[in-house]
Amino acid sequence: KAVSCISDDNQSAEMMECLKQTNGMPPLVQECTVPCRDDCTFTVWSKFTPCSTDCDTTRSRRRQLSGKSRKKEKCQDSDLYPLVETELCPCGVFISQPYGNWSDCILPEGRRETQRGGFRVQGESKECGKGMRFRAIACSDKNGRPVDPSYCSSSGYIQEECVIPCPFDCKLSDWSSWGSCSSSCGIGVRIRSKWLKEKPYNGGRPCPRLDLKNQVHEAIPCYSECNQYSWVVEHWSPCKIHNELRSLRCGGGTQSRKIRCVSAADSEGGAVDNRLCNQDEIPPETQSCTLLCPSECVMSEWAPWSKCPQSCDPHSTQRRTRHLLRPSLNSRTCAEDSQVRPCLLNENCFQFQYNLTEWSTCQLSENATCGQGVRTRLLSCIRSDGKPVGVDQCEQRNLEKPQRMSIHCLVDCVVNCQLSGWTTWTECSKTCGHGGRMSRTRFIIMPTQGEGRPCPTELTQQKTCPVMPCYSWVLGNWAACKLEGGDCGEGVQIRSLSCVVHNGSISHPAVSVDEALCGEMPFQDSLLKQPCSVPCPGDCHLTDWSEWSTCELTCVNGRSFETMGRQSRSRTFIVQSFENQDSCPQQVLETRPCTGGKCYHYTWKASLWNNNERTVWCQRSDGINVTGGCSPQTRPAAIRQCNPACRKPFSYCTQGGVCGCEKGYTEIMRSNGFLDYCMKVPGSEDKKADVKNVAGKNRPVNSKIHDIFKGWSLQPLDPGTFQLRVRNIHFSHGGEGVGLHVVTTAY
After folding, report:
1. What is the side-by-side order of every strand in the sheet holding 259-263?
2. How many other C-beta atoms are found inside a 10 Å radius of the C-beta of residue 392?
3. What is the DSSP letter of 527?
4. What is the pTM of this model?
5. Cα–Cα distance between 583 and 336 in angstroms, integer?
6. 522 Rama class: left (phi>0) / alpha (psi -120 to 50) / beta
7. DSSP one-letter code for 147
8. Cβ atoms of residues 198 and 168 within 8 Å
9. Would you call the peptide bond into 632 cis, given omega within 30 degrees of 0 as the criterion?
10. DSSP for 515-576, written as a single string
11. pLDDT-based confidence at residue 340 (cuts at 50, 70, 90)
């Protein structure tokens, strides 16, 4: 047919105008069916009869045979060609059933988002608060048939409110003021601190490392000049004589003086707390003194000791002197006027060196919280005995100073974890039935830096899909072979095609529904109808082909030199008539080349003996029982026979492989160990006489020949392998025994 585009006022229009407003052009070609001469033809199905409001009612539709089909016998079969179709009425009552677990708590969409690096990045949007969680439902009508979940709920979910707790960050106090320097002379530290006000929870920004008092400290080195405070002494008081004789004005005594600590910055010399001065250098407040008598020598005060060399060589010495002021009047020798002592390290001789503090923490400019800063260290002078002294002591000795006293540093700015926006929900993992899930994800755009808020562990959210009904076409079983006016021969068998619904689970049975729900029929008519045959008496019935065997190579000692292998399949004939057994071939074998073959070896297997018989079969190295493959020359015997044969009356071959006598008879043996004859035991009766021929006397060979096949059976050899066997049959005609031989084939 032709397709054209017209406007609302029936005027011709461009084809593009119609395509803009529709999903596509109507089809120009559609399939149709012309019935063949032998096909059954029908009228179009009528509309379904109306339904009542009761959900338990049914509706039906009809059709009729048309044309010559009304006179054909095969078309009259209502099982194969139904003229009435009945189904349950659509029910307006629907039942919902919750399915699966609750989803994660999902916050509402629509918050502010920005683009960064190709991802949607959440701006100031909250990651907490009220949201919704969802639970899928399975919807069914009153008859238990699954239907679309929208019949029970517009969204296909049960919804309930939920709350995601908001994170709270660690809160500390502001920095305290810097404390005073811990040392009054030389290097010390100054400390400031913060203390904990509120702990973090729900994934908030963590606290820095705190001490046992829940405080965090920051320390910087400091330096105090050692001569910042010094001791000041007054003059000694006159010497007070200890002699009780007041008439004497000379001899030993004591004298005292006042001391005070003063600040070098105080020009007036006002006294300060004595603890600020070096306690190791505190001057004495009293001392012994002597008032010389007029007749004694008078010496001057000792001069300072001479300096020791900087190396403090113990072989070097230092000296001090004094001089005579008044000689003795009574010729007595005056006291020594010089003294010498060795230079001993850390006693009267000292060495000096510069001392560096550790680098301070990174110090930022005022009001800055992160970024570029400076780390510093301080220089001091230390005497060899560990006593800090003024830096001038090291400078006077021209000691080498360290070069760098400050370096640049960087304090990471606090950056909270930055996430992308949620992706759209994925398609459901299953198109219908139970077990479907859908998910959405987000990504870490910028990881946490410094003491920023950590990234959440939940980067994926999932929820169960609503349970959609599964519609599918189902092929029925093949009907019996329908013949045209006969009991055997060629015919046709038919199977039905129906639309069913189920929920995808094994336990839920499929229920037939309207074919329109399954959509276009995917099967061709050839799959619904096939030729068949019913074997006639005397025919050879050919079975279906077996499955192709696995690919196999020709191997020598487990190795193959072939690149292509072979696989085979077979079909066999079942004899319908004993008279035609020689005209039916035993087996049809078909082979084809294949790749990827394996090497196998074959071994004969046998069951235990049972009445001198056992089953013998060939087994492949992978455990599969097969027909062929084993060497016929090495096949074990399936029937155990005595040698020589047991031909004496009332004798038979025992399981031990020697001839014995039937019950009621005793064996008379020859000297060579073989049976001579069976002698009747006195008192026993021969109840078996003439039994073998009575039942078959004057009975035609071919009467009730179909009874022969009633004893056929399939006996399993192993899983997936069967052997067709026939019970032993013996009947007689005119005094002659006739046997039936049936070929057995393993599958």
Report:
1. 229-233, 259-263, 271-272
2. 12
3. G
4. 0.43
5. 157
6. alpha
7. E
8. yes
9. no
10. GGGG-S--S-GGGTEEEEEEPPTTPEEEPPPPPPPPPB--EETTEE--S-EEEEEEEEEEES
11. very high
SS3 391: helix
Place of tokens 């199905």: 45
- Here the tokens at position 114 are 């920005």
Could you tell me if 653 and 679 are in contact, meaning their C-beta atoms sit under 8 angstroms apart?
no
Beta bridge partners of 117: none
- Scanning the structure block, which residue is given the tokens 């923490």? 361
Could you tell me the CA-to-CA distances from 696 to 579, 706, 736 in Å, in that order? 19, 17, 9
- pLDDT 10s digits, 576-589: 556 656 667 667 78
Question: Can you read off the two tokens belonging to residue 225?
Answer: 């000049």
Residue 648: CA atoms inside 13 Å, Cβ hemisphere, count?
A: 24
Of the chain, the end-to-end C-alpha distance in Å amounts to 56
Residue 467 burial (CB < 10 Å; 0-12/13-18/19+)? buried
Q: What's the rounded Cα separation, in Å, for the pair 308 and 315?
A: 10
Residue 94: CB atoms within 10 Å: 16
Amino acid sitting at position 109: E
Amino acid at site 645: A
Q: Is 590 helix (H, G, I), strand (E, B) or coil?
A: strand
CA distance 43 to 33: 13
The DSSP bridge partners found for residue 606 are 616
**pLDDT (mean) for 286-294:** 84
List pLDDT tens digits, range 63-72.
Answer: 888 888 887 8
In order of 145, 153, 156, 438, 663, the CA distances from 137 in angstroms are: 14, 8, 6, 14, 77
Helix (H) or strand (E) holding 603: strand 602-606
**Contact present, 456 and 203 (Cβ < 8 Å):** yes
Strand partners, 159: 134
Q: Which helix (H) or strand (E) holds 392?
A: helix 391-396
The type of residue at 361 is T
Q: Which residues pair with 534 in a beta bridge?
A: 489
| Banded pLDDT at 23 (limits 50, 70, 90) | low
| Extended strands (E) in 250-337 | 251-256, 259-263, 271-272, 286-291, 298-299, 317-321, 324-326
Cβ-contact 595, 553 below 8 angstroms: no
Q: 175 falls in which pLDDT band (50, 70, 90)?
A: confident
Average pLDDT over residues 96-116: 71
How far is Cα 555 from Cα 301, in angstroms, rounded to an integer? 124
Which two structure tokens, joined as six digits, stand for 696?
Answer: 């078959």
CA 685 to chain centre: 82
Nearest to 414 by CA among 455, 449, 362, 368: 449
Structural tokens at position 445: 């755009």
Tokens 């007070």 correspond to what residue?
240
Contact assessment for residue 151 and residue 138, using Cβ atoms and an 8 Å cutoff: no
Burial readout 570-586 (b: 16 or more C-beta within 10 A, e: otherwise): bebbbbbbbeebeebee
**Residues 531-543: b if buried by 16+ CB within 10 A, e if exposed:** ebebeeeebbeee
Could you give the CA distance from residue 379 to residue 392 in angstroms, rounded to a whole number?
A: 12
Region of 435 on the Ramachandran plot (φ > 0 left; ψ -120 to 50 alpha; else beta) = left
Sheet holding 240-241, edge to edge: 240-241, 251-256, 286-291
What SS3 class is residue 371?
strand
